[in-house]
Amino acid sequence: MSCLIWNARGVNQKATVNHLKHLIRQHKITVLVILEPKLPSVKLKNFAWKLGFTSFMDGADTNQYIWILWKPFVDIQCLNIFDQAITVTISSPSQPLFTASFIYASCSHTERKNLWAHITAMHAVISTPWLVGGDFNAILDVTEKKGGLVDISRLHDFQNLVLQSGLMDAGFIGNPFTWSNNRTGPARIWKRLDRILVSPSFHLSFPNLKVVHLERTLSDHAPLCVSFEQPLDSVRTRFIFQRMWVDHSSFLETVKKAWTIPVFGSPSYIFQQKLHNVRRVLKRWNWEVFGDLQSNIKASQQTIQTLENELQQGWNDEILEQLVETKKHLNRLEDWEAEMLSAKARLAWEKDGDRNTALYHACIKDRCKRSAIQIKREDGSITTDPNEIGAIAESFFANLFKASDYHMDETLFNAEDRRSPAVNAGNLARNKNSEKKFIF
């Protein structure tokens, strides 16, 4: 199970929805927490449908800044709604029950003190493993801010909360800062405003807990990806024609050049070879132009992290320009990925943007399953591993064509003759008369 927490600063833009779709697919998100959606609650159902979630909740009139969405196999029950936090219990077939408080802290220091008091009060009544995560709008240490001044008194308030609540920082992987004011030059400020805190019992129940600060692209906050177990290896899919190709400026010219390659023979042979040439050229062109989308997206994400780090070390306008262009490139890659997934499913309603529902992925998986080579083991189970399939096939044909084992019964040669002497004499006489007929 994995959870994505993001202060998206509004989810009404197509680019934001596409980015969320990619993150959900890439990190296999089962629980999504959106902070500051900037949309009315009536839009939540349609937003959840677009992302493939069937269950969702918000804080109603008490808290309009936190949306929670989850997959069908996850069970979430609301415990408490506060104006800056929503506390729920979460369980799934593969994970034990725990309590989670999702935070969207106020920018006002006075109102944040009310949140600190609320978290302290929740600590007194929660007995299960506890996770507290989101946008705290505060830092725990002076090293968690770069640029500008640090208010020590506010820092101490947050530190006291963590100590009184018995919580500990879960750590992270990625950029040390999760927020930036996005200003240029010396006015640029970075902070670690978003974090995950856990109770000691949570740490014991989920020893594989991992928190990743993802790249900042469409918001001034970085998404937090929280995973509770080791990820599974992905499976490579087969190559198919991609609809996104037709939108590229060099696509038609590439097809034209491939089609005009000279071919000689009968009309049917020429037609078949031209189709083969186009397919072969498009394969190479796809790799040169688009490459491996998953790898390119990950590379762009890493580049964004690197450029952010360099910008934090010292302001440079050229680095800022590279950062902006890389973010635009990442958005294009995610658009291409969305089109690729739609083409794989071959559904008439892919224009709606829903590529995460069970039906949608069932169509993709069904096509992959029907095109995959599989073989049955001796115990009746199925394997799709190429090496094991080869070994089973080799063993089958080796046994098929080799001589079978046999056993010779020696008693057959020691059988007792039970015929009478008279019968034996008559048979011998008939054999001699038969032999005379063939003497010339």
Topology record:
Elements: E1 2-7, H1 14-27, E2 31-35, H2 44-51, E3 55-59, E4 63-70, E5 75-82, E6 85-92, E7 95-104, H3 109-125, E8 130-135, E9 145-146, H4 152-164, E10 168-169, E11 173-174, E12 179-180, E13 190-191, E14 194-198, H5 200-205, E15 210-213, E16 224-227, H6 251-259, H7 267-289, H8 293-313, H9 317-345, H10 358-371, E17 375-376, E18 382-383, H11 386-401, H12 421-436
Parallel strand pairs: 1-2, 7-8, 11-15
Antiparallel strand pairs: 1-16, 2-4, 3-4, 5-6, 6-7, 8-14, 9-13, 10-14, 12-13, 15-16, 17-18
Helix pairs in contact: 1-9, 3-4, 6-7, 8-9
Would you kindly provide a written description of the structure presented here, covering whatever features stand out?
This protein is of the alpha+beta class and 440 residues long. It contains 12 helices and 18 strands. The strands form 4 sheets. It has a 7-stranded mixed beta sheet with strand order 3-4-2-1-16-15-11, with helices on one face. A 6-stranded mixed beta sheet has the order 5-6-7-8-14-10. It has a 3-stranded antiparallel beta sheet with strand order 9-13-12, with no helix packed on it. α3 packs parallel to α4 and α8 runs antiparallel to α9. The longest helix has 29 residues. It is extended, with a radius of gyration of 35 Å. About 2% of the residues have low confidence.
Number of helices: 12
Unreliable segments of 5+ consecutive residues: 230-237
> What fraction strand?
15-25%
- Sketch the topology as an H/E string, one letter per element: EHEHEEEEEHEEHEEEEEHEEHHHHHEEHH
Terminal CA distance: 98 Å
Structural class: alpha+beta
Largest sheet: 7 strands, mixed
Mean pLDDT over all positions: 80
Q: How many distinct beta strands?
A: 18
What is the general shape? Answer: extended
Radius of gyration: 35 Å
Strand order of the largest sheet: 3-4-2-1-16-15-11
The level of helicity is 40-55%
